[in-house]
Amino acid sequence: MLLWLSHLLAESITFFNVFSYLTFRAILAATTALLIALLIGPWMIAKLTRDQIGQVVRDYIPAAHQKKVGTPTMGGLLILVAVIVSTLLWSDLGNRFVWIVIGVTVLFGLVGFWDDYLKLVKKNPKGLIARYKYFWQSVGGLAAALALWYTAKAPADTTLYLPLLKNFALPLGFFAFVLLTYLMIVGMSNAVNLTDGLDGLAIMPAVMVAAALGVFAYASGNAVFASYLAIPAVPQAGELLIFCAAMVGAGLGFLWFNTYPAQVFMGDIGALSIGAALGTVAVIVRQELVVLVMGGIFVLETASVILQVASFKLTGKRIFRMAPIHHHFELKGWAEPKVIVRFWIITFFLVLAGLATLKLR
User: Fold this and answer.
1) 58 Cβ contact list (under 8 Å, min separation 6)
2) Residue 169 is inside which H or E element, if any?
3) How is the chain split into domains, by residue range?
4) Is the alpha carbon torsion for 126, 74, 85, 186 positive or negative?
5) Less Cβ around it within 10 Å: N or C end of the chain?
6) Which residues is 160 bridged to in the sheet?
């Protein structure tokens, strides 16, 4: 929106040409999202508190979490508002990738909103029935996959690349591409949701992964950089740097209120939408496997639940004291802030490892 306005103004005032630079607009997008989150955060927390939309702690959760009962939830709406408004202000609205990512974010946010609404407002402890939640997630994942397939403009858009293997490029057929995209979007959505169990545990890794994906988007969208780094060149993908920057700003703004002890929780409305957005961006910039490395904490949390359930059903024994694995460490005696910060540190180095693949080919 403001990019279009700057182009008009640049015809008479050359200063406004600066808004044509992706990096400059990315800085503005991150700053705008951060300010939106910081400004409306207190109002939103007060409203959620006033409306008694507070956290419900299950009986099987560690006892230390009982003190969190009543903490305002559905704070993920704060992230969505900041990300979407900032993206609409500073991105090129003629870019198809921007609208696909926004569409996925909104749809998964609506699924999460309805789940939270049933739990917190309607006092239904089960929330949205699992099969209905999965159905609507599937609708969103498949819709995004089909949109990306039918709007693909270059072979790289639908080709599978592997990190560290410079000459590996596997063109994907319709079903393979749709399946991979679907699994990435729905899988990342649920993985972030499983991780969101401690104050700030999910949002900071999401911020770091979003920042790294922004780097990949910028490089992939620039033919010169893509050629030099030997990564897939995806025309128009660079504009996703704006979305990723907005997510970084919004995430940090939310963390201001979500850091231990949390004043607000993001709820499913935030976790499902953030995970889906990260998965979608990873598919667009053709870094599906790299994002699984960078988001290793999300993968670990998901794997711990799968292994726990499988082990109990097959052997009657549990591998972990409790799953997801962050609760296992809590029950081992780790203080909540220690679990959170250590998982952040691990994510930081996993993100560095993912970024290293830009040159290690």
Assistant:
1) 125
2) strand 169-171
3) 22-293
4) negative
5) N
6) 170
Confirm if 238 and 22 have CB atoms less than 8 A apart.
yes
Q: Are 256 and 38 in contact (CB under 8 A)?
A: yes
In sign, the C-alpha dihedral spanning 194, 199, 205, 208 is positive
117: which residues sit within 8 A by CB, 6+ positions away?
74
Categorise residue 18: left if φ over 0, alpha if ψ from -120 to 50, beta otherwise.
alpha
| The model's pTM | 0.93
Helices in 91-173 by DSSP H: which ranges?
96-120, 130-150
Tokens in use for 183? 């699994």
CA atoms within 13 A on the CB side of 285: 34
Query: In sequence order, which residues have a C-beta less than 8 Å from that of residue 148 and are 6 or more positions away?
Result: 100, 157, 158, 177, 181, 283, 284
3-state secondary structure of 42: helix
Residue 16: helix, strand or coil by DSSP?
Answer: helix
In which residue are the tokens 């089960």 written?
A: 126
Enter the tokens of residue 301. 């949390």
- For the chain, give the number of residues: 361
ω before 62 within 30° of 0 (cis)?
no
| Model confidence pLDDT, tens digit, residues 284-343 | 999 999 999 999 999 999 999 999 999 999 998 899 999 899 999 999 989 999 999 999
Helices (H), the chain: 2-10, 22-50, 76-90, 96-120, 130-150, 174-195, 203-220, 223-229, 240-258, 267-284, 288-294, 296-315, 325-331, 336-356
Both tokens assigned to 246:
């907005």
List, for residues 216-261, the tens digit of each pLDDT value: 999 999 989 998 888 899 999 999 999 999 999 999 999 999 998 8
Distance CA 93, CA 210 (A): 20
